[in-house]
Design brief:
This protein is of the alpha/beta class and 263 residues long. 31% of the residues lie in helices and 16% in strands. The structure holds iron/sulfur cluster.
Length: 263
């Protein structure tokens, strides 16, 4: 692969310089990414490339199927990569048990991230009960966006398992995209599985005999926090069971957008 140099620029853009290869500019949000070669590369090549070029690299996962594929590949490429897990305090017990199992079996370098308030009880004492029902954007900001933003100050790139086939909102995600933290510092977000389908994921998991999240057998498809996740019905996309009945499709970590909230 002709991917050789990756140059960060201070003007909120980044450039992937492809020596010996053809490329064209592609404008994504506020940043400029020259990423056509990465769009064509397969997932393992993308992971090898980012592992070779970015020292301060992390991967985020909630131990769902796409994340397991990435973790499995990274075990052979960069086994000590920090694995960031956002512990919101609202996970299903099955998620936490599966996380423990896979962390032990794969000897993962797991780093747990928590929101400012540390627990659902303390959050309820400050904001009242069931903030996730009344103001889910605020709840996600406290428990997901802000802790991840803080953690990412220690990294230059992070890997996520987003795929274009997961929902309409994700149908155009690029393989590589810049994000700007509240401090103004840029990080790079890498989606090695952007072009994969659910069938690709299941085939990989089956081929490598990788265990899957236990709630998949109970009709769940995308598994987030317990109060905001339901099983999906036939014909629904995988993320239809997230924040059902609420005008919300993402928690915010994939855009890192935050709002102004009045406690
Ligand atoms: S998914 Fe629901 S419970 Fe979890 S942080 Fe967001 S609003 Fe809160």
């Amino acid at each position: 692969m002709a991917l050789q140099t990756w140059v960060f620029r201070s003007n909120r853009s980044l450039e992937v310089e492809l020596l010996g290869g053809k490329f064209r500019d592609r404008r994504i949000g506020s940043g400029e990414v020259l990423s056509e070669e990465l769009e064509r590369a397969d997932a393992r090549e993308v992971l090898e490339w980012v592992s070779a070029h970015v020292k301060r690299l992390a991967v985020t996962t909630s131990f769902q199927s796409s994340g397991l594929v990435i973790l499995h590949m990274l075990r052979a490429i960069r086994p000590d990569v920090p694995v960031l897990f956002l512990n919101t305090g609202f996970h299903f017990p099955e998620t936490l048990a599966f996380r423990e199992r896979m962390t032990k079996e794969w000897d993962l370098n797991l780093i747990e991230l928590r929101g400012d308030h540390g627990s659902p009880e303390r959050q309820a004492a400050i904001y009242g009960p069931a903030l996730y029902e009344r103001r889910p954007d605020q709840c996600c900001t406290i428990n997901k966006v802000e802790p991840l933003q803080r953690a990412l100050e220690g990294y230059d790139a992070w890997i996520s398992g987003l795929r274009r086939d997961q929902s309409a909102a994700r149908s155009e995600i690029p393989a590589v995209t810049p994000q700007t933290l509240p401090s103004g510092r840029d990080v790079v977000k890498v989606h090695p599985l952007a072009a994969w389908t659910k069938s690709d994921i299941n085939a990989y998991l089956s081929e490598h005999d990788i265990p899957t999240h236990p709630l998949l057998e109970r009709g769940f498809a995308s598994i987030g926090c317990r109060p905001c996740t339901r099983p999906v019905r036939r014909g629904e996309d995988d993320r239809a069971g997230r924040w059902d009945g609420v005008d919300k499709t993402e928690c915010g970590i994939h855009s890192l957008e935050t709002g102004e909230f009045v406690p």
